[in-house]
TrEMBL record:
It comes from Triticum aestivum (Wheat). It comes from the Eukaryota. This is F-box associated domain-containing protein. PANTHER family: OS10G0136150 PROTEIN-RELATED, OS10G0138300 PROTEIN.
Length: 175
C-alpha cells in the first residue's frame, strides 16, 4: 500500500508477525512504530484498512468492518502521549444502498487520493468515490472484479523559461 503524508511525516501500513503503522518523520529523520487501534481479522492487503488524513487534520485510519466504515483519529493527551479515538462510524449499506441482507460481498478500499482525501471503494454494484468530510459519494462505474487504483491528481512541471532559465516547479492540479 502506498504511503500517506500527514504533516511532516510519511506513514505506511505494515503487516506480518505484528501489524501497525510505520512513521518516518522527515524533520527528525527518525522511524517510529504506531500500534493499531483495533484487532482485525484478515490481512491489511485485503482492502479493509487504510491510513489517511483524519477529519480535521492529523493521522487517521479508515477501517472497514463488514458494511461499516470506521474513521479513527490519533489524539495526543496533555502529556503528549498519542492514542487512537474512534471519530465516527458510517453504515455503508445505508449510504450506498448496498442491500447487505441479499449480498454478502463486503466493500473493499481499492484506492486513495491523498490530496483530496478521497477513498475509492469497490462494492458488488460498482466502484464508488467517497469523501468523508463532508460526506459525499459518487458511483464511478460498475465492476464485478476489483483492482487497485491510483488516482491522478496533478503533476509538477520543470517550467523552463526562455534561454534555459528555470523559474521553479509549478503544480498542475486536476488539469
Amino acid at each position: 500500500m502506498p504511503a500517506v503524508m500527514v504533516g511532516g511525516s510519511f506513514y505506511w501500513l505494515i503487516s506480518g508477525d505484528s501489524q501497525g503503522i510505520l512513521e518516518f518523520d522527515l524533520d527528525r529523520r527518525s522511524l517510529s512504530w504506531i500500534p493499531m487501534p483495533v484487532e482485525h481479522n484478515g490481512g491489511m492487503g485485503n482492502g479493509n484498512i487504510w491510513v489517511m488524513l483524519a477529519e480535521g487534520g492529523g493521522l487517521g485510519l479508515l477501517f472497514l468492518r463488514g458494511f461499516c466504515a470506521q474513521l479513527w483519529k490519533q489524539k495526543a493527551d496533555c502529556k503528549g502521549v498519542a492514542s487512537w479515538v474512534l471519530g465516527r462510524s458510517i453504515d455503508l449499506d445505508t449510504v450506498l444502498s448496498l442491500n447487505s441482507e441479499v449480498e454478502r460481498m463486503y466493500p473493499l478500499v481499492v484506492g486513495f487520493a491523498e490530496d483530496n482525501n478521497v477513498v475509492l471503494l469497490w462494492t458488488y454494484i460498482g466502484v464508488f468515490m467517497i469523501q468523508f468530510e463532508p460526506l459525499q459519494f459518487k458511483k464511478l462505474f460498475e465492476s464485478k472484479a476489483w483492482y487497485r487504483y491510483y488516482p491522478f491528481e496533478g503533476v509538477y512541471t520543470a517550467d523552463t523559461g526562455i534561454g534555459g532559465a528555470h523559474d521553479g516547479a509549478k503544480l498542475l492540479s486536476n488539469t
